[in-house]
Design a protein that fits this description.
Length: 316
């Protein structure tokens, strides 16, 4: 049996897909797994913020198209890049154990957010990170960043920035944990929905492939990502609005924390709720409703009403 995995060509994407390949081949010696590199629109356009060119979906559409055309048998995605609604005929039901969901500060000589100087230049391509950082430290100057992990680290090392913020999961998967200056706790910086989670996307009805992959599924990860993505769907979220959510299990309860903020961080609405782990989607939907009733609806209307994100200032 031959399984073809569709993947982006970045070092991180290939590392993640390569790990899935190794797990399948170790489990099933009779299966040959091939990685098929697919360049997505998000990989091609590197000179504009994601919020201006389409946001979520930019790193998955071409891979999903190949899956629907049966050019590949499965796709490995970073779940934070996956839109709330999947194309007809596709589904994600296998979620390996989540890597560290938190964000990491990478800096030249500074060990935490608090030790960064007043007016520090902090690089990130995420409105979510930007809004939360500015809410904590309005003096920061947020500098937009695109590109892979190596590109961002090189920009920091060139001396143009005081710090950058990246997903801890990516740095750890690439063997770059030594570059982390400080792990930002969940109370300080709530992560992106699905951060640290890999999702294996398949064609619906492809039972043979699905049965081969179920051993990779991690139940706790499946439950918590279910709550987070229900929150995302209810808010119709994308990269144009600073929003975040993170779920965790406590016995038979799923606890979900969610956030929506103004682009400049001047207003940040955050709440938490819990519910039975047997119905995580209900928790996500109800938490989203609570945030909307607390003023998130006005933030969403205002930002989406602009027709476009104002983006970042690239000047101090």
């Amino acid at each position: 049996m031959i399984l073809r995995i569709g993947t982006r060509g970045s070092k991180l994407a290939l590392t993640q897909s390569g790990w899935v390949k190794e797990q399948i081949e170790a489990r099933y010696p009779d299966v040959q797994v091939r990685l098929v590199r697919i360049k997505t629109r998000g990989d091609k356009i590197l000179d504009s913020p994601l919020s201006k060119i389409g946001g979520k979906g930019l790193f998955v559409k071409e891979i999903e198209d190949a899956l629907l055309r049966q050019e590949i048998d499965l796709a490995v995605h970073s779940m934070k890049d996956v839109p709330a609604i999947l194309p007809d005929g596709l589904g994600i039901s296998v979620f390996p154990r989540r890597e560290d969901p938190r964000d990491a500060l990478v800096s030249r000589g500074h060990s935490s957010i608090d030790t960064l100087p007043r007016g520090a230049l902090v690089g990130t391509g995420s409105l979510r990170r930007s809004a939360q950082l500015l809410h904590m430290r309005p003096d920061f100057h947020i500098i937009p960043m695109r590109g892979n992990v190596d590109t961002r680290l090189k920009k920091l090392d060139s001396g143009d920035l005081h710090a950058i913020v990246l997903a801890a999961a990516g740095l750890k998967r690439l063997g770059l944990s030594e570059r982390i200056s400080h792990i930002l706790d969940l109370e300080t910086l709530l992560p992106a929905i699905g951060q640290g989670v890999l999702g294996l996307e398949l064609r619906e009805g492809d039972d043979v492939v699905h049965e081969r992959l179920t051993f990779l599924n991690h139940e706790e990860t499946e439950v918590t990502i279910g709550a987070e993505r229900a929150f995302l769907r209810k808010l119709e979220g994308g990269c144009q609005v600073p929003m975040a959510a993170h779920g965790r299990l406590d016995g038979d309860q799923v606890i979900l924390t969610g956030m929506v903020a103004e682009l400049d961080g001047s207003v940040l609405i955050k709440d938490e709720m819990r519910g039975h782990s047997g119905d995580p989607e209900k928790v996500g939907i109800e938490l989203a409703g609570r945030l909307l009733a607390s003023g998130a609806d006005r933030i969403l209307d205002r930002i989406y009403g602009m027709g476009k994100s104002p983006g970042f200032s690239d000047k101090p």
